[in-house]
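Box S1 | Example of a co-folding query
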Amino acid sequence: MNHRSSTGDILLDAREVTKEYRLGGAFFGARAATLTAVNRLTFSVRRGETLGVVGESGCGKSTLGRVLLRLEDPTSGSVAFEGEDIVRYDHRKLRALRKDMQFIFQDPYSSMNPKMTIRDIVLEPLDNYRKDLSVARKERLAGDLLEMVGLTRDMMRRYPHEFSGGQRQRVVIARGIALNPKFVVCDEVVSALDVSVQAQVINLLADLKQRLSLTYLFISHDLRVIRHVSDRVMVLYLGQIMELAPADELYEGPLHPYTRSLLGAISKGDPRNRQERVILRGEIPSPLNAPRGCPFATRCPIAEARCHEEKPPLVERSDGHAVSCWLV
Ligand SMILES: Nc1ncnc2c1ncn2[C@@H]1O[C@H](COP(=O)(O)OP(=O)(O)OP(=O)(O)O)[C@@H](O)[C@H]1O
Ligand SMILES: [Mg+2]
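Box S1 (continued) | Returned holo structure for magnesium ion
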C-alpha cells in the first residue's frame, strides 16, 4: 500500500472539523456536559493515498471516520469531498454520496446479521442502491466480489458463523467495495486478527486499492500496522492532531513528545530499533474537561508553563511534516 502519490490532487478536505457530544442532564442532579471527541481537525486526503490515523483508545479515531463520511454530522467545520462541501448535502445528495464513500467496520461479526447468508450480506448495499440490477446480475456480482476478496463463489449460501475471523473480515471488505467506492475508511480492520491473518488482509486491501483506485483512511491503534500500510500518518491525542507526516519520516524522525513516547513503546525489547525512550506519566485527561493548553501537557516530559496555558497550532516544519508543539 506504500504507493507514493506525489500529485497534490485532493480527494477530501477537512477544515476545523469538530464533533461534540452532549452528555448527562438526563438524571436528577446531573449537569449536562460537553465531550469533545474531535477538536478542530484540519487536514486533507490525497487521491490514491493511504492516510493512517493512530492514537490511543478514545482519542477520536472512529468518530472522525464517521464524521468524514457523514454517518454523523459534525458539530462544526467543513468536509469537502471532490471539492463539494458535503456537510451541506441534503438527504438526496447524501444518498448518492454513500456509493462513493464506505466504512469498513472494526468488528465484522457484530456488523453482520447472523441470520443472513453471505450472499445477502455482500449484496446489502446493492439491494439498497442498485435496485436497477436484476437478481441474476446481482448474484453474479456477489460471486465476483467474493472472488475478488479471495473467497469462493460457493460460499454465498453459507452463514457468518461458518467462517473464520479472517474470512468474515473479507466478507465485510467485499460488502465495502460492492458499490465501487472512491474513499474507504478502514476502522481497526485487522486489530482482532492473528498476526499472520492480519498480513493477508492487509495485502488484500493493498491489492484492491490498486485494482479499484481506492483512497483509504486507515484507522488503527497499532503503530506497526499503521507504518506498514500508510503513505502519511496522523497522530491524534484527545481529538487533536499532534503530528502529521509522511510515514517514513514520522517513524524515523518523530518530533512531537507524544509521538516519540508512542514509538518508544513499540521499540521496547527490540535492540535493533532503539529509540530515546520517553516515559509517559499519568493518565489521559478526560475529554470532558480537556486541558486548556496543549492536550498532552499533563503527561509531557518537557512541558513548560506556556504549554498548560496556550494551545500550540499545527505548524509545518518541513515539507509535509507538521507538528503541534511549542517546544520542538
Ligand atoms: N455516541 C457517543 N456519545 C457520547 N460519547 C461518544 C460517542 N461516541 C464516541 N464518544 C466519545 O468520544 C471519544 C472518542 O471516541 P472514539 O470511539 O472516536 O475513539 P477511538 O479513538 O475510536 O477509540 P478506540 O481506539 O477505543 O476505538 C471517547 O471519549 C468516546 O467515549
Ligand atoms: Mg474506534
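The radius of gyration is 21 Å. The first helix runs from residue 61 to 68.
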